[in-house]
């Protein structure tokens, strides 16, 4: 079980309160698909992902990026039980879609970059530490 300090909870909730899902979600997923092209194999039904321009203009990629952030929102609202919150999603991704679990970490890293670039200097080392802890718990829950 993960123990969260009140300050960590506040940092995570503050990030989500300022997060533009329709901007950050697509940017994070687009970055992951471009920087880690092997992740594209899970999105064959999304159509043209042949280059960065195609990925960045693909409406299915953008829509799924928003879905991913809404999924993270569920974790934020259930920080004391992220593992059970993601149990069904974990089974879907691992047993049905056969997603390599390391891809969740790669996407989390891309999301961190997008959020850091948006928050600027307010993404302090303390905020980043809380955010990284949160994402580590989420990634762990999705891996199982």
From TrEMBL:
Which top-rank group of organisms is this from?
A: Eukaryota
One GO molecular-function entry = metal ion binding
The record's family statement is: Belongs to the globin family.
Species = Cirrhinus mrigala (Mrigala)
Q: Which residues form the Globin domain?
A: 3-144
Q: What is this protein called?
A: Globin domain-containing protein
Q: Fetch the InterPro entries from UniProt.
A: Globin (IPR000971), Globin-like_sf (IPR009050), Globin/Proto (IPR012292), Hemoglobin_b (IPR002337), Hemoglobin_oxygen_transport (IPR050056)
> Pfam families, from UniProt?
Globin (PF00042)
Which keywords label this protein?
Heme, Iron, Metal-binding, Oxygen transport, Transport
Cite the Gene3D superfamilies for this sequence: Globins
Provide the organism lineage as a comma list: Eukaryota, Metazoa, Chordata, Craniata, Vertebrata
